[in-house]
Amino acid sequence: MTGKLRISEVAAQTGLSIATVSRVLAGKANVSAATRERVLKAAYQQGVMQNLSQGRLLLNSLTLFAPARAFDVRSDIFYHRVMQGIGEAVRPYDVRVRHCKLEEIDSNAGYFLEQMSKADTDAAILIGIDDANIHELAADLSKPVVLINCLDKKMRLPAVSPDHFLIGNFSASHLFQLGHRNVVTLQCLRRYTMELRVKGICTSWEEHDLAFRKESQLIVTEGFSSAETEALVKRRFTSGNEQERPTALLAGGDFMAAGAMKALRSLGLRVPHDVSVMSMDGFNLAEVEGLPLTTVHVPREELGAEAVRVLRQRLLAPMGPSGNLLLGGQLVAGATVRRIKPGAGASSIYQNALYD
After folding, report:
1. Are residues 75 and 69 in contact, defined by beta-carbon separation less than 8 angstroms?
2. Superfamily assignment of 164-293 in CATH?
3. Where would a tag sit more exposed on the chain, N or C end, judged by fewer CB atoms within 10 A?
């Protein structure tokens, strides 16, 4: 049976015109929610959905839920860029996008249900919402929902996230492979995602037969600011003896790396000659104090694009299994990290190893 004939059968079954059915299956916005639901139900019965092009997005409107700070680029550039990625991904499909503020934890369940029940919410994407109650409510709704950078522990909702564990593991391993052994990590632990990074870092220490001592190898910050990091790095480098001075700092973000470099400069230490500095969560700063920053770029816009792709799959196969898609980072080798001789301090530095 041809696709055209099936569309004719869908039109006959619903009592709608072939043109209207075609508009729904093409993902056009100029049809009502009731008409769209009617057509899709009949299309599944007729087998049209199995052959539908993956290039179509079968919805008119999309609602994004995110913490309030995500809507201000100065407060949370990461989530702001994630939302930009979603906007770019749905732009070719003429989909209306609506934004709603929702707390990460202890979220307002009534507000969430109110927004989800609106006619202009065909589907939703939740960004950084950790409230398990919201996840459960979303899973019980008849509208598709995808999570970004959060996790439904009951495995009912699909999610797209950076692979935080692997990003931490890879970043620490990169420094170890360059000869560093005394590496101090600077990390904010306000969410479990950052704890996953630290677990990855700890695992890298074990993989290189090194003992991770939390009291000396980890500096926990309240946030990701440059000023806080600067103060903590100064305290760390002035409280210990020079023989125990770290050869590298691994910062949880670019602004933290900038603060660390400012602190080192104020203490008369050069980057990377005396101390190397590496960042995770790259993209915010291309360089610091005139030096291209060595960093691991963590996906942001890509998270939004992949979430839209996962949402498309849910629209085509609502009863399909839910999974968690983890995206890796990308190393950008700048000028803030140097190779050192194994077992040597920061003064014995060379750039090229024998088998480079």
Report:
1. yes
2. Response regulator (3.40.50.2300)
3. C
